[in-house]
Design goal:
mainly alpha; about 150 residues
């Protein structure tokens, strides 16, 4: 009959000798902040945040970009008129959604570009942090001088 009591269980636990870590290499607590293992989701969050912010920027700025492009492409029509006239003419001929004509290619390139930019900036920021987690001017200058040499 099996015993319900765990004290009768004959399992043995093997632990490493004192002072020897279970992992290869130095313990992560002894590594500088820039060499600490990154959380896997941190990079994905950076890319998504950058891509989303790039998309929002494009959608907000597209009406001004559209009017600027119309003035540059058609100076004989749009270039001689006021900004208010250009806005009214666009709404009259294309509707309010006309300001976002041609937005798809911009989004196609802006989302990944801004995602990668956010990721790279975050990785450089993490690299430049000292042991206290702050970015110091000295370390930044040291890194820049190494990079430029």
């Amino acid at each position: 009959m099996a015993s319900e009591n765990n004290s009768n269980n004959n399992t043995t636990h093997i632990s490493p000798p004192a002072g020897i870590p279970l992992t290869k290499g130095p313990p992560t607590s002894q590594l500088p902040s820039w060499a600490q293992p990154a959380k896997k989701k941190e990079g994905v969050k950076s890319v998504l945040a950058g891509g989303l912010s790039g998309a929002v920027e494009i959608m907000i700025m597209m009406p001004t970009e559209f009017i600027k492009t119309q003035v540059q492409l058609y100076p004989q029509t749009y270039g001689k008129q006021s900004l208010g006239w250009c806005i009214r003419e666009t709404i009259k001929t294309r509707g309010i959604t006309g300001f976002w004509t041609g937005v798809k290619p911009l989004l196609l390139f802006a989302i990944p570009k801004n995602g990668v930019r956010f990721l790279v900036v975050n990785k450089i920021r993490d690299f430049l942090k000292d042991e206290q987690g702050e970015i110091r001017l000295g370390k930044m200058l040291q890194w820049c001088s190494w990079w430029c040499s």
